[in-house]
Design brief:
about 35% helix; Carbamate kinase; about 240 residues
């Protein structure tokens, strides 16, 4: 097996990827199993995997605000949704034989460990897949920002945003057949073109700490492994192109 291109990664997955809209399931066992198999394939290459998961399949703070819930309260509810997803993914991974840890920004000692930087790094060094839940622990910050923050804290070499699209486009490829995919972008270009891949604070954190971002189709078979093997997959976002 070839040596991985990256040793320690941060993978961000939105909560929507865990559900099945056609069947009305916010959590789908088959999807979770597929996610787990992709992660284990890469873990067996010797890659240290950390993750941040969203909670949009269960609850979104902004949606709560539209329903009359205070924004800060809705954001905390969204953080709890990310913990549900983290625990569901942990279960799928452990069923497949992986060793995992869930760490949360909000203390929940009966279900997960509190986030402690040195402890998280130690888990990674021991080959455990570490899933970070509850975002940053603060309202008004997205899980993209949480992923960029944790990536910076644990010295991740790259931040990967796994989606259902094979990269970043100049417009929505699902509605525009002429949409153009970018192979490479700078942080500044991604922000100035308002491509809405991630929020500005997440881009800023990655830029300040020199963490490249790769946006790719997580659900294409073996695509995560191809990224780890150094292939040109998806869209690469760095300081300069």
């Amino acid at each position: 097996m070839s040596k991985p291109h990256y040793k320690r990664i941060m993978l961000k997955l939105s909560g929507e990827v865990f559900g099945n809209r056609e069947h009305g399931h916010s959590l789908d066992a088959q999807v979770l199993a597929k996610v787990a198999s992709q992660l284990i394939e890469v873990s067996e290459m010797g890659v240290e995997i950390s993750m941040v998961v969203g909670g949009g399949n269960i609850f979104r703070g902004l949606a709560g605000e539209q329903a009359g819930i205070m924004r800060s309260q809705g954001d905390y509810m969204g953080m709890l949704a990310t913990v549900i997803n983290a625990l569901a993914l942990q279960s799928a991974l452990e069923k497949a034989g992986a060793e995992t840890r869930v760490m949360t920004a909000i203390p929940m000692q009966n279900v997960a460990e509190p986030f402690i930087r040195r402890r998280a790094i130690r888990h990674l060094e021991k080959g455990r897949i570490v899933i970070f839940g509850a975002g940053t622990g603060n309202p008004y910050f997205t899980t993209d920002s949480a992923a960029a923050l944790r990536a910076s804290e644990i010295d991740a070499e790259v931040m990967l945003k796994g989606t259902k699209v094979d990269g970043v486009y100049d417009s929505d490829p699902s509605t525009n057949p002429d949409a153009v995919r970018y192979d490479k972008l700078s942080y500044t270009e991604a922000i100035s073109r308002d491509l809405q891949i991630m929020d500005t604070s997440a881009f800023s954190l990655c830029r300040e700490n020199g963490i490249p971002i790769i946006v790719f189709d997580f659900f294409k078979d073996h695509e995560l492994r191809r990224v780890m093997e150094g292939e040109s997959v998806g869209t690469l976002i760095t300081k300069g192109c």
